[in-house]
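Shipment paperwork, digital attachment
Item: protein structure file
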Amino acid sequence: MSLIELEGVEKRYGELRALKGVSLTLEPGRIGLLGPNGAGKSTLLKVLLGLVDADFGTVKVFDIDARRNPFEVRALVGYMPEGDAVLPELTAVQYATLAAELCGLPRADATARAHQVLHYVGLGEARYRKLGSYSTGMRQRARLAQALVGDPKLLLLDEPTSGLDPRGRDEMLALVEDIPRRTGASVILSTHILPDVEKTCDQVVVVAGGEVLYGGPLAPLVASEEG
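Attachment content:
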């Protein structure tokens, strides 16, 4: 079973064609979604989740039709959106517990899982602090925790290193690299930074202007860049 299958996917926002006939097949693993800002990366992630409905085309995730059965897809996917999507008045434990409950876990199990993932992302000592008091790097980790808390089979990370200093970026990328080994989940890392993809991924999809310019193993692309 392929991880993702897209065929002829189109998405317009008025006159803007955000996705232009995207066709793509991806196998499970660590995948970089690489392209400049405005390339269509975030729209593509939202189409995979069914948060944005494609105007045309076929979208399958784990062989599930994401256009017809978006909730079935979301039950298998963790999503870390771009931007500061946290609830500042909640503590990290409350935030991650809420995310776990939304995934269907009973309150006690959700709380236990929240503590577990917050320790994993390095927020164990700060988990009772309100998110509004967190630094940028800590908020990014909290957002990663809420994406992990439902034990997803696929993790979609939209610009997870945005706004981080070099140390914070290295620590975030180390987590991204470790997640598939620890959980068995596949990861799609959306970014405009090629070194982030080189460090963490074995497949890459290059997007520009709503079109896929390359999709496949990372090694040939890196070799062509070096050449």
